[in-house]
Amino acid sequence: MRSVATISENSAFDVARLRADFPILAERVYDKPLVFLDSAASAQKPQCVIDAVSHCYSREYANIHRGVYYLSERATQAYEDARVKVQRFINAASEREIIFTKSTTEAINLVAASYGGATLKEGDEIILSHLEHHANIVPWQLLRQRIGIEIKVVPIDERGNFLLEEFEKLLSPRTRLVAVSHTSNALGTITPAAEIVRLAHAQGTPVLLDGAQSVVHGPIDVQALDVDFFAFSGHKLYGPSGIGVLYGKADLLAAMPPYQGGGDMIKRVTFEKTEFADIPGRFEAGTPHIAGAYGFAAAIDYVSAIGMEAINAHERELLDYATARLQEINSLRFIGTADDKAGIVSFELDGVHAHDIGTILDREGIAVRVGHHCAQPLMDRFGITGTVRASFGLYNDKADIDALVRALGAVREIFG
Ligand code: PLP
Question: What domains lie within the chain, and their CATH numbers?
Answer without folding.
Answer: 4-45+307-415 (3.90.1150.10), 51-304 (3.40.640.10)
